[in-house]
Amino acid sequence: MSEAFASLGAWFHNVFVAQFTVWIAIGFFAQAMFSARFLIQWIASEKAGRSVVPVAFWFFSIAGGALLFVYALYREDPVFIAGQGMGLFIYGRNLWLIFRERRSALANTV
């Protein structure tokens, strides 16, 4: 049993300590930013008493997604690159639609 714990401890050290670089720190920061969008959405929904997606959700999606995309490029991970690249397009498109709707609403009130 202690050999299993030693192997597990060695694995954790190898994965989380031995290979730690600035890029790993950037990857963790990017993931934290990307995950924060769900916290923002949850808080906004709780305040509204219904499910809502605030504009900040899309900004955090773009910021976290862009950083994760750069990290994926550095890691040369084609699955991660394709996933984050497509996500960036979708997040940007959602922001474009939101701002276009707001511009239209402002034009109609003047």
Brief write-up:
This protein has 110 residues and is mainly alpha-helical. It has one domain (22-109).
Main beta sheet, described? none
Question: Any idea how many domains?
Answer: 1
The low-confidence parts are none
Radius of gyration equals 20 Å
* Overall pLDDT: 92
Please indicate the percent range of residues in DSSP E strands (runs of 2 or more).
Answer: under 5%
Number of helices: 4
Distance between the termini: 74 Å
Overall body shape: elongated
Number of strands: 0
H-E string? HHHH
Description of the structure:
With 110 residues, the protein is mostly helical. The protein has one domain (22-109). Helices cover 88% and strands 0% of the residues. The protein contains four helices and no strands. The protein has helices at 2-18, 22-48, 55-75, 78-109. Helix 3 packs antiparallel against helix 4 (78-109). It is elongated, with a radius of gyration of 20 Å. The model has no long low-confidence stretch (mean pLDDT 92).
